[in-house]
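Case study: Orotidine-5'-phosphate decarboxylase.
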Amino acid sequence: MSGRFGARLARAVAEKGPLCAGIDPHPGLLQAWGLPADAGGLEKFALTAAEAIAPEVAVVKPQSAFFEAYGPPGVAVLAKTMKVCREAGALVLLDVKRGDIGSTMAAYTAAFLPAGAELEADAITVSPYLGFGSLDFAVEVAQAQGKGLFVLARTSNPEAQGLQNALLPNGKTVAQDIVDTAGAQNAGVGPLGDIGVVVGATIAPGELDLSKLNGPVLAPGFGAQGATPADLRALFGPGLPGVLPASSRDVLKHGPDPESLRAAVRRTRDSLGPLEKGQ
Ligand SMILES: O=C(O)c1cc(=O)[nH]c(=O)n1[C@@H]1O[C@H](COP(=O)(O)O)[C@@H](O)[C@H]1O
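Here is what the predicted structure looks like once written out:
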């Protein structure tokens, strides 16, 4: 697929709906699937999940830490998993939550965004907590390479509230300031900018104004962390414009049978509403 990330994402969502399915090989899930806690078990888990799930959704989000935990063989499995997802037609959002000083961000960017990189992703998650400006180079590379970023703004975990809802001297919350800075990068870009934000599906409605973001919103917390389709609509509006509800464990717990996994991902996808409302 060619073109800007936001445009590719909008097409994929129009075709397959907004669900982002996570591949999070938790040790407990490997055990529940009857797999050993080693790189061989990881490979069986991740490839089974990728083959069953990726054809059904617009976006797959492998969680890098669960692969890195197995060392170099785990990272090799991650590369294989990402390839299987892309070949099945899904966009790959690699959840690596990177965030560092600008010059080091350049190295992270080189690892994940250029075409042909071993761990090439369509988009990655990044942390702005060293200052949004520390991500400038990553923003530039993503926009130039047709790739995307999802910047942590208001995360789904309960500990995040104090920091992310703190007021800045400009009168905005930290999270709102991050959303607005991402929005400035997306200004004037159609149909959707390339710089998304992460907003947990578990947060209270009304905390954030997303009306000027003009970019995608990754909304984890749907499923295992308790958020329902009704919560998503209350938080983001009835059509969920640009919103990618993300679910990992709630789908993966239906393995290892590929048919059960496929049925679970279809059920989850369909619970979000008819396709034309997805974008
Ligand atoms: O960036 C993320 O993906 C993320 C941000 C956030 O605010 N909350 C959150 O849960 N996540 C990730 O989303 C996934 C949620 O998994 P489940 O709770 O199993 O659906 C995990 O991979 C988390 O690391």
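For the exam, be able to explain this: The chain has a mean pLDDT of 95.
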